[in-house]
Amino acid sequence: MKVGQPSAEFVEKRPVAKGNSGQATASGTQGPSSASSGLDRIREAARKDSKQKFTNLLHHMDSDLLRQAYLCLRRDAASGVDGVTWAEYGEGLDERLVDLRDRIHSGRYRAKSSKRVWIPKPDGRQRPLGVAAVEDKVVQQALVLILQEIYEEDFLGFSYGFRPGRNQHNALDAVYVAITQRKVSWVLDADIRSFFDTIIMVPLEIARPWIASGRR
Questions:
Q1: What is d(CA 212, CA 53) in angstroms, rounded to the nearest whole number?
Q2: Do 155 and 163 contact (CB within 8 A), yes or no?
Q3: pTM of whole model > 0.90?
Q4: What is the Rg, in whole angstroms, of the alpha carbon atoms belonging to the chain?
Q5: How far apart are CA 216 and CA 213, in angstroms?
Q6: Burial of 207 by CB count in 10 Å (0-12 exposed, 13-18 middle, 19+ buried)?
Q7: CB 136 within 8 Å of CB 81
Q8: Residue 189 and residue 61: Cα distance in Å, rounded?
Q9: How far is Cα 76 from Cα 31, in angstroms, rounded to an integer?
Q10: pLDDT at 9 over 60
Q11: Average pLDDT, the chain
Q12: Could you give the angle at the alpha carbon of 162 between the alpha carbons of 72 and 94, nearest 5°?
């Protein structure tokens, strides 16, 4: 286990469910945990001081981190509005990433529009999904790699959603252990209907003071 990562209940395993054998434990959205020494220093600082504010992280967005972010992406994911696939973006990757890094640091980087696709739901309705261009996915993933070094120190051990090295099967392991080895009076299953269809976007002028306040 990586230094500073909260302990989690899934170390106690339930019996292997049919069809789960050989299932990868790493989250598909987070990628490998081979952070650079710079990112390791961020995590160490976050671990030592839970109230520390991180205000100068952009310099970590270098070509090496962007390459790591690119390698974290799904190879078979749908292309965005520019029609460029993961493999096609990898042609001349070094030059692409240097150019991307320079545009990010100079303030010239602009994300492309997301491609809207519709995913059928079991009840016959359709769920809207925005597909970003590969380059924008690289930037987003690089941000994740930086910020998770901070926020992984804050998450509790029983949190499993969209975290590196954890998935839904780990969460099921924890639930199994809890209900079979401890006294449980009730179990709550909740779902917010059409959450992403109705989520409220906060205006920047309202969000800016919160962002400026640091990690919380």
A1: 9
A2: yes
A3: no
A4: 20
A5: 7
A6: exposed
A7: no
A8: 39
A9: 15
A10: no
A11: 79
A12: 15
Buried residues in 123-155 as b, exposed as e (16+ CB within 10 A): eeeeeeeeebbbbbbbbebbebbbebbbebbeb
Task: With H, G, I as helix, E, B as strand and everything else as coil, classify residue 152.
Answer: coil
- Asked if 154 contacts 50 with a C-beta cutoff of 8 angstroms, the reply is yes
List, in order, residues 6 or more apart from 34 with CB less than 8 Å away. Answer: 68
CA-nearest of 152, 186, 155, 169 to 27 is 169
Evaluate whether 72 touches 28 at the Cβ level (below 8 Å).
no
| Both structure tokens of 136 | 């924008």
Residue keyed to tokens 């739901």: 121
pLDDT for residue 3: 42
**3 CB neighbour count, 10 Å cutoff:** 8
pLDDT at 212 over 60: no
Q: Which residue has the higher pLDDT, 22 or 99?
A: 99
Q: Are strands 115-120 and 126-131 parallel, antiparallel or unpaired?
A: antiparallel
Let me know: does 64 contact 36? Beta carbons within 8 Å. Answer: yes
Helix axes 93-106, 63-72, angle to 10 degrees: 120
